Amino acid sequence: MADSNEMTINLVVLGRTQTGKSAAGNSLLGSWDFESHRSPSSVTTCCSLGHSCRISGVIRRNGCELALRLRVLDTPSYPHSGLSKEQVRDAVRSALTHHFGEEGLHLALLVLRADSPLCPDESDHTIQFIQELLGPTWKDFTAVLLTHADKAEEAGFSEEAYLHSASSTLLSLLSSVQHKYIFLDNQKSIIKEERAIVLRKLLNFIRQNNYQALLLKHSKE
Fold first, then answer.
1. Contacting residues for 210 by C-beta, under 8 A, at least 6 apart
2. How far apart are alpha carbons 49 and 46 in whole angstroms?
3. pLDDT tops 70 at residue 139
4. Which domains does the chain have, with CATH numbers?
5. Degrees, nearest 5: CA angle 80-94-208
6. Whole-model pTM?
7. What percent of the chain has a predicted confidence (pLDDT) above 70?
8. Where in this chain does the record put each AIG1-type G domain (predicted)?
9. Which residues pair with 183 in a beta bridge?
10. In whole angstroms, how far apart are CA 148 and each of 3, 103, 136, 151, 197?
């Protein structure tokens, strides 16, 4: 996972069309690796891997500061406007195995919009999709990334108020992944200070797994 002075974290972003999945990947990397814009159809049609530069000042282990590197896999949305579920699943599964097959995946980020309700059917389909990709231990290696948190804040919802008003479907999902969730302000996430806060939260989730990674070679059928 790392040499003595550097740690590499492998992440994948998953989600529906127009949730801000690719934009979230860009925010985590601190760059513009992935195409992201408003569109009447799904923008991302294939998987692509982005790499961050060395990030300092975010993590310490055993009293020493480590440089952090992120590898983020952007994926086509599911459901997709131009690809079947099987096409998306097979493409993501192949990319996960190709890019992270040796080192494993540290965390899958399920991207949801904070300014849109999560309905039961949508949640069920999404969970089934993630289970097919990651297997029975998916809950241990999945966190929820709630994008457009700035829009929820503009509507008068603090994080506490938002969770108090959230649907039982969303609360059940958050509970199933051991409350691993992050609110992402799309206007501020690219700012260095805001990005560092998000990265520290991600690292805390990974620490809860004792820095273990999910090995993906088994995902080929």
1. none
2. 10
3. yes
4. 6-209 (3.40.50.300)
5. 90
6. 0.91
7. 91
8. 6-221
9. 146
10. 35, 31, 30, 5, 16
Is residue 218 a contact partner of residue 137, using CB atoms and an 8 Å limit? no
Model confidence pLDDT, tens digit, residues 2-11:
456 899 999 9
**Distance (Å) of CA 155 to CA 114, 151, 219:** 11, 6, 41
Please name which of 138, 159, 160 lies closest in space to residue 218, comparing C-alpha atoms. 138
Q: Are 119 and 156 in contact (CB under 8 A)?
A: no
Judge whether 141 and 215 are in contact, CB under 8 Å. Answer: no
Q: Which helix (H) or strand (E) holds 93?
A: helix 85-100
Q: What is the pLDDT of residues 45-90, one digit of tens each?
A: 899 999 999 998 888 877 888 899 999 999 999 888 888 989 999 9
CA distance 207 to 213: 11
Mapped onto helix, strand or coil, the DSSP state of residue 44 is coil
Q: If DSSP codes are grouped into helix, strand and coil, which group holds residue 205?
A: helix
Q: What angle separates helix 21-29 from helix 192-208, to the nearest 10 degrees?
A: 100
Could you give the CA distance from residue 74 to residue 92 in angstroms, rounded to a whole number?
A: 9
> Strands 64-74 and 6-15: what pairing?
parallel
| Residue 41 dihedral angles phi and psi, to the nearest 5° | -135, 170
SS3 63: coil
CB distance 65 to 6 below 8 Å: no
Enter the DSSP assignment of 196. H
Beta strand 2-3 with 48-51 is unpaired
